[in-house]
Amino acid sequence: MSGAPAFVSTRDPSRRAVTFEQALRHGLAPDGGLYVPTSVPALPAGWRALDRWPQVVEAVLRPWFPAEAANAAVEAAQQALDFPVPLRELGARRALLELHHGPTLAFKDVAARTMARWLGTILRAGGETATVLVATSGDTGSAVADGFAGVPELRVVVLYPAGRVSPVQERQLTVPREGVYPLAIEGDFDDCQRLAKRALVDPALAGLQLTSANSINLGRLLPQATYHVWGVLQLARSLAVAPEEVVSVVPSGNLGNLAAGLLAAGMGLPLAAFVAAHNANDHFPRLLRGEVDADAAPATIATLSNAMDVGAPSNLERLLALFPEGRYPVPVLGASIDDRATLASITRTWREDGVVVCPHTAVGLAALRRLRAAHRDVARAPALVLATAHPAKFPEVVERALPGVAAARHPRLERLPPARPLARLAADEPTLRRWLLAQLG
Ligand SMILES: *Cc1c(COP(=O)(O)O)cnc(C)c1O
What we know:
Helices cover 41% and strands 15% of the residues. It has 441 residues and is of the alpha/beta class. The longest helix is centred in the middle third of the chain and has 22 residues, at 218-239. The model has no long low-confidence stretch (mean pLDDT 94). Bound molecules: pyridoxal-5'-phosphate.
């Protein structure tokens, strides 16, 4: 039996190892790299027989922790993941894994709620406090704000691109919450992400004890590995197929969700393939086809699936370090779906399957249709499509695809107060530094 893995920076050739707690606490390595595990532990024997969500959470997470920390970490995750993650069958050997039943109606709740509890425990034990800095393309910010609010050891600063999140998302992001500071940044998501990453390693801000709650933080990725296993088990059971046959479609932007799935695959979750389903921000699918260089940094394109509007995905650096030269534990296919095809996918899924999906999930379904038409193996495979957000978060887009269909509503979103960011800031480092020091220093 090997022990729990240690963690190293993607950029440190000496591979100086830190514990999981340190990786979680700091978010980004001091050299600006992302933490990756030195080894990937195996799923426990008997994982295929698990048929309850909390059991799967335990099976996937326990092997990552040293024995003395494992019970508390697993229990915290099980408490955080107190909402269902059900399968919805669509016919034609497809099913959605509905990841949007958490408090902010997007899959980001899974990781944000778990990480908040883990981080709170670490800080409390050390008598410390910290400021979480999070860049959001729409959904992360409210999930983190909701999951972290009220943890007394933590303050949360949310950076979101002004005018580039949906009106509902902005209202969710700026709900007044204890210890949460939403800032509208005059730029795109990549600007927000760049500002957050620079601030984390800015010596002038050391006094704020900054950490990250973006998917650059390993504490975000591990909780997401749980539902990749859970989804495949549920699909395999309901269609009476082996996990080995399943194609899993992941609507992707920053590639955190795919990285989590590949960690699950590295732990021994067998699959026929992953599909990285991107919108017009297609750097990763093009990289898979050998058309571009890994370190090209394309600009972000604004699309209807805005939570996936990421030009240069952060987690690519992690994928390249974990799986050099594309040696993934299971095959990875890519697809890029434009806005027209996204709208058509929402319309078609409603007409044919009677389900209203969000634009991100629609990208996943469209990618599956396209790959089924192009690859015989994919055409025959049972497919899991991760449904990453509730359609009611994107009423404008759903209305365009389905005029007059009033199905995209959710009671939790009806009562939100008007959007009210704390400040609107230019997208430059000195401006953010000044604001942080003045308000929180
Ligand atoms: C964040 C998000 C994605 C993309 O996930 P990544 O981990 O960034 O690849 C997809 N869909 C929705 C609804 C999201 O909020």
